[in-house]
Each structure stands twice: as structure tokens, then as C-alpha cells.
Amino acid sequence: MHLITGGAYQGKTEYAVEHFGIKSEDIFTCTEDGKIDFGKGCVRGIEQYVLACVRAGKDPGAVFESTRDWEDAVLICRDISCGIVPLDPVLREWREAVGRLLAILSRQAESVTRMFCGLPQKLK
Amino acid sequence: MIAFISGGCKNGKSTYAQNLAKSLCKTGKLCYVATMIPHDEEDDRRIARHLKEREGWGFETVEQGTDIDGCVDRLGSGATVLLDSVTALLSNEMFGPDGTFRPDAGIKTAQQLRSLCLAVDNIVLVSDYLYSDAQIYDEYTEAYRRGLAHVDRELAKLSDTVMEVCFGNIIFHRGELTI
């Protein structure tokens, strides 16, 4: 599994397309509906999946334990760990849940890349 | 040399940028392009503080709050320029004093900055990395964030060196240099 992270609009998806040769139709984009599907080989917006889980009172890490389908995938998740601690308890939980999940995924990833202003920084 | 600097607030970006601009300036003028348009007394005080902080550095201040490439003639040829900050410039371009909102201001701003970069000998550009917080913003703030990211990425593409300042330490994302 290859993990791509970084802030909003930093070029994470573009990097996945260019570097891993992923076609745009092979990218599953998570939304607030709480669905996730690793079948296409690339999943982006994992932070949105986590937000949906937090809102539904579900553990966002559970899906990564119940299936190993993500093991050969390229996973894209925004880093939301910086900035002010949100007043809204849901966003507070979201921030921490994304952080915890990224730490778990980082450990299991073959490579970890952080995007900064469109430039990749190899973390692992 | 085109140098792009970003990072979190109060990490030492401006100080590093001033040092870098000064060291890049061998011949020609050393100019500070001031992008802030004062709206009240608080802004006036902030500008006075910034002017005092730059005293003795040898910067000539050139004011240009919008249409940034409009200052090219005043800079003259062979200038070394410090532009601090891209963030303030985009804010002026996106949110007019009369309440106008231009959601796609980032596209024009990136083009005009490109013209400026190509017209001078050296330029050091300072932006702000505000993309990693856990907030859900209103459409205006989100458009601004998206616009600034567009400008940042266009400038990063153009730059010889791209740096992230982290508590006074420099992470080189492209083109390592020493000053």
C-alpha cells in the first residue's frame, strides 16, 4: 500500500495519477455518505470517510481490519492535524481519528509521501 | 533566482526571507514589495511596525496591493525583490473593499506573479501554509484556501528553490541552498 498525505489542495491526487499511473476512473472518492471501496485500487478523501464514521459513531479503523483489500492500493488522505483545536466536538474527534488512522496506515505502508505545494516529500 | 517560502505562522519565514533576499542582491536595487492595503488604525500600526523591523536592511519599499505586476516599472531592471506576502495579495484580489468577491482571483494572481517573477533578477516570495487544519469552512474561506493553493503550486512550479520554514529550520522541497 502506498499512502499519500498532505494538506488540502496540495496535489495529492495529481501525484497519484502521475507517479502511480492511476487513471482517474480508477479512483474511488469518499464522501460524507460513509462508503469506502478499495476495489478500484485507489481511494481518495479518506478524511471524508473518517468524518462520516465519526458522525455515525463508527470506528473508522474497523474497515482496515475487516478486509485486506487495501493492501495493494494507493490511499490518499488529507492531513488535518495542524491548526486550532476545533470548538465543535465532532470536528475535534475527526481531527484525532484522522491522525490515529494515518499513524496506523503509515506503519503498514510501503511508501509514504507528503505533498507540499505540488511537490512530493518522501517520508517513508 | 526565484525562491518560494511557505510554512506555518510565526515560524521565522519573514526573517529568513529577508536574509535570503539580502544575500541574493549582489548588484541592483533591493526592494520590498508591500502588499498590505491599510483599512484602519490597526493596519497603520502594523505597517509602521513592519517598516521599523526592516529599518537598516537596505530595502526600498514599493507598494502594490493589487495587480502585482503593475510595480515592474518602479522596480527597474536587475532588482532583487522580497514579496511578503502572497497571502495578503490574494486576499486583496479576492475580497474587494466594496464587498466584491472574486472566487477565481487565484488564477489572475498566479499569472501576474509569474510576470513579476520573470521581470526581475531575483525574487523571494513568502506564502502561508494553511491547508492542514480540521475545520469545515464557509464557501468564501474555502475559495480563498483553494485559490491560495493554486497560486502556491504555480509559484512552486516556477521556483528554483521551494522551502518550508519549520520553527526556524528550513526543509528544502526543491533546490537546496545556503546563505
Characterization of the model:
The complex is a heterodimer of chains A (124) and B (179). The N and C termini of chain A lie close together (12 Å). The mean pLDDT of chain A is 95. In chain A, helix 2 packs across helix 4 (89-108). A six-stranded mixed beta sheet of chain A has the order 2-3-4-1-5-6, covered by helices on one side. Chain A has helices at 12-20, 46-56, 62-66, 89-108; strands spanning 2-6, 27-29, 42-44, 74-76, 111-116, 119-122. Chain A has four helices and six strands, in the order E-H-E-E-H-H-E-H-E-E. Chain A has one domain: P-loop containing nucleotide triphosphate hydrolases (Rossmann fold, 3-Layer(aba) Sandwich), CATH 3.40.50.300. Chain A has 124 residues and is of the alpha/beta class. Chain B is α/β, with parallel strands linked by helices. Chain B has a single domain, classed as Rossmann fold, CATH 3.40.50.300. Chain B is built from six helices and seven strands. Chain B has helices spanning 13-24, 41-54, 72-75, 86-94, 105-119, 139-158; strands at residues 2-7, 30-34, 60-63, 80-84, 122-126, 161-166, 169-174. In chain B, strands 3-2-4-5-1-6-7 form a seven-stranded mixed beta sheet, sandwiched between helices. In chain B, strand 6 and strand 7 form a beta hairpin. In chain B, helix 4 crosses helix 6 (139-158) and helix 5 (105-119) packs parallel to helix 6. The longest helix of chain B has 20 residues, at 139-158. The interface between A and B is medium-sized, with 24 and 25 residues.
Class derived from helix and strand content of chain B: alpha/beta
Which value, in Å, is the CA radius of gyration of chain A? 14 Å
- Enumerate how many helices of chain A there are, as a single number: 4
- CATH architecture verdict of chain A: 3-Layer(aba) Sandwich
Q: Would you state the CATH class of chain B? A: Alpha Beta
Q: What count of domains describes the coordinates of chain A? A: 1
- By oligomeric state, this entry counts as heterodimer
| Percentage of β-strand residues of chain B | 15-25%
Instruction: Give the CATH topology of chain A.
Output: Rossmann fold
Strand order of the largest sheet of chain B: 3-2-4-5-1-6-7
The number of helices of chain B is 6
Which strand order do you get reading across the main beta sheet of chain A?
A: 2-3-4-1-5-6
Q: How many structural domains can be distinguished in the coordinates of chain B?
A: 1
User: At the third CATH level, what is the topology name of chain B?
Assistant: Rossmann fold
- Characterize the main sheet of chain B: 7 strands, mixed
Which secondary-structure class do the elements of chain A indicate? alpha/beta
Order of helices and strands of chain A: EHEEHHEHEE
What is the helix content of chain A?
25-40%
Distance between the termini of chain A: 12 Å
